[in-house]
Design brief:
By secondary structure, the chain is of the alpha+beta class. It contains 17 helices and nine strands. Strands 1-2-3-4 form a four-stranded antiparallel sheet. Strands 5-6-7 form a three-stranded antiparallel sheet. It starts with 5 loop residues before the first helix and ends in a 19-residue tail after the last helix. Pfam families: Arm-DNA-bind_3, Phage_int_M, Phage_integrase. Belongs to the 'phage' integrase family.
Length: about 425
């Protein structure tokens, strides 16, 4: 095999050109850089050694020789390169690298919501399992330990989690903190180990409580202490998403107009959503303590935002306590699974659609759903606030009614769309 020459480095065509000793010249368009490639566990791995502008052929060969020596001694070339290239005295953990990537990408993201979504999914699913590992230590088995529990039950979330792990590990490889072998990559990696996302990406209905039991659930919820229980009350009374309630700040609440305005960067649709607040919802807000150092309405013990797991844990305790007291627990009869905070939105939707006179577009707008029909969507952007307030007031009366009391509501009429 002919070795590279200084002239050859300058004139080589696009592609990967071997120099020997695991050193390669990578040419892509006008970019020319050095690559160190090796095989481990039957897989080819590589790390970048910098641009030819920054490192001469002689310097690249000297560095490659050191990495080859480390490889023969059983060391990790990526870790050795990070140490030799002065990229810091220590390699960051996966969690630290994730935070660096988010900060690097933040200026280019459409809004703050995108960064928050990254942080939330990493916090809830990834960092507890692999956050303390160095990037090079993350293996396929580690990635699978994150994905398998949610791959079929939360298909959309799982796909995003996989993509984010892959992006973080690519970021680490670009900085020399690990080799180029990415265990989170779909093609050639996880595709052989997990079912296709399209096969599991069917609608996964969140376990929901039958609306006939919602008042019972509400009464037992109000008896429980803790901010997570209060947040669940608010979710139930407003039919909002868990993340919207957990991230609510006092600046978003207007007690005079009785409105909660969720800014566009915190909504799933990317559009501002205004929620009419019923009297029970307002009374709940007025009863809450405030933490001077925290902007959140429903703050965690240290002032940050409550986690989604806090909501889940509260419902699970309620279920267990109800069973222990001789009750039915709080299961979705269709799936026999414990209900979820998100499932309370389905409870509201079933109640509104099956027992009330409120028009479908009003109900869908209350849930901040995007309407597929353009004419209907245009109508929904009109003066629906008063109609949605009436809907939420009806819902609050139904939820907060005393035991044994039936709330009379008009039989639902099939309202025609306004042209």
């Amino acid at each position: 095999m002919a070795k590279l020459t200084a002239r050859g480095v300058e004139t080589a065509a696009d592609g990967l050109h071997a120099d020997g000793g695991n050193l390669y010249l990578k040419v892509v368009g006008g970019s020319r850089s050095w690559v160190f490639r090796w095989k481990r566990d039957g897989k080819v791995r590589q790390i970048g050694l910098g641009s030819v502008k920054d490192r001469s052929l002689k310097e690249a060969r000297e560095l490659a020789a050191k990495l080859r020596h480390a490889l023969l001694n059983g060391e990790d070339p990526a870790a050795v390169y990070a140490r030799l290239s002065g990229k810091g005295e220590r390699i960051p953990t996966f969690a630290e690298a994730a935070a660096m990537l988010i900060e690097a990408k933040r200026p280019g993201w459409r809004n703050a919501k995108h960064a928050q979504q990254w942080e939330n999914t990493l916090r809830d699913y990834v960092l507890p399992k692999i956050g303390k590992l160095t990037p090079q230590a993350v293996t396929v088995e580690h990635v699978l330990s994150v994905l398998r529990p949610i791959w079929t039950t939360k298909a959309e979330t799982a796909s995003r989690v996989r993509q984010r792990i892959e992006a973080i590990l690519d970021y680490c490889a670009a900085h020399g903190w690990r080799d180029d072998y990415n265990p989170a990559r779909w093609r050639g990696r996880l595709k052989a180990l997990l079912p296709e996302p399209s096969k599991v990406k069917r609608i996964q209905h969140q376990p929901a409580l039958p609306y006939v039991r919602v008042a019972e659930f509400y009464r037992k919820l109000t008896e429980r202490p803790g901010m997570a229980a209060r947040c669940l009350e608010f979710i139930l009374l407003t039919a909002c998403r868990s993340g919207e309630a957990r991230g609510a700040t006092w600046r978003e609440i207007d007690f005079e107009t009785k409105l909660w305005t969720i800014p566009s960067e915190r909504t799933k649709t990317g559009k501002e959503h205004v929620v009419p607040l019923s009297e029970p919802a307002l009374a709940l807000l007025r009863s809450l303590p405030r933490m001077e150092a925290s902007p959140y309405v429903f703050f965690a013990p240290r002032g940050g935002m409550l986690s989604d797991m806090a909501m889940t844990a509260t419902i699970r305790r309620m279920h267990a306590d109800d069973l222990a007291a001789g009750g039915q627990g709080f299961l979705d009869p269709a799936s026999d699974r414990i209900i979820t905070a998100h499932g309370l939105r389905s409870t509201f939707r079933d109640w509104a659609g099956e027992t009330t006179h409120h028009a479908r577009e009003v109900i869908e707008h209350a849930l901040a759903h995007q309407l597929k029909d353009k004419a209907e969507a245009a109508y929904a952007r009109g003066a629906l606030l008063a109609k949605r307030r009436a809907l939420m007031d009806d819902w609050a009366r139904f939820v907060t009614r005393p035991a044994g009391v039936v709330v009379p509501l008009p039989v639902r009429e099939h309202a025609k769309m306004t042209s």
